Amino acid sequence: MKRLENKVAIITGGAGSIGKITAKLFLEEGAKVFLVDVNEQELKAVDDELEGSRIKYCVADVSKSEDVQHYVNEAVKEFGKIDIFFNNAGIEGVVKPLVDYPDEIFDKIMAVNVRGMWLGNKYVLPHMNDGGSIIMTSSVAGIVGFAGLGAYVTSKHAAVGIMRVSAIEAAPRKIRVNSVHPSPVNNRMMRSIEEGASAGHAEVVKKQFEASIPLGRYAEPIEIAKLVVFLASDDSQFITGTTQVIDGGLVVQ
Fold it and tell me: Which residue ranges does UniProt annotate as crossing the membrane (predicted)?
C-alpha cells in the first residue's frame, strides 16, 4: 500500500519548486493534493503538468485571513477532509544590512512567512482529521543567522515558535506538527539571494555558500520533498514538535 493512500493534503506555495515536487511525490504515494499559491499562472502550469482527478488548486494570498479560510473551505469541499498540511509558502525579500533594510519589505516578509504560517495552522487545524500531520517550511535561517537576511532569518525563527505551540496544542488529537530546515536549495529563491548578495557575481556567491556546506553542494528540491513525505506519512507517527534539519551539515560547524 502506498504511504499516503486515501490521504488529502494541502500544499501552500504550491507553484514553487519545493511545493511542486512535493505535490508530485504526494500523488505518487496515493494522496489527493490541493495546491495553493498567489501566482495563478504558475499554479495553473503546475496543475497542468500534474493533471488528474486527484489534484486541485486555489489562488490565495496566505497573509490574508479571508483567503486562508477560503482555501481551507475549498479543499474540504473538493476532497471532504484534510489529513496533511504542508505549510510551505514563503518569500526571501532582499539582501541588505539590518540598518538599511526597507521597512515595507520587512513587513511583507512578516505577512507571508509569519502571519501566513500562523493563519494556515489556525484555520486548518479545526478541519484536520485526528492523527494528521502538519509540516512547516522554515530554513537553516530559522536556526542560525545570516548577515543581510535579517528579515528572512527573523521570519524563519518565528515559524519554529508557531510550530512548537501548534505541536503542543494539537497533541491531544494525535496531530503531529514539525518544521523542516533546508540549507540553500538549488532553486529560484537562491538565485535571487545570490544576485542580491553581489549583483553580477551570483556564481561566486553560490560557490561561497557551497563551500560552507560540509557535503559541498546545495540541496535539491526533491530531497526536501522526500523528508516532507516521511513527515506526512504514518512512518513518523511518534515525531512531533521537532526541527528537522536537512542541510548537508551546514549548522553543525
Answer: none
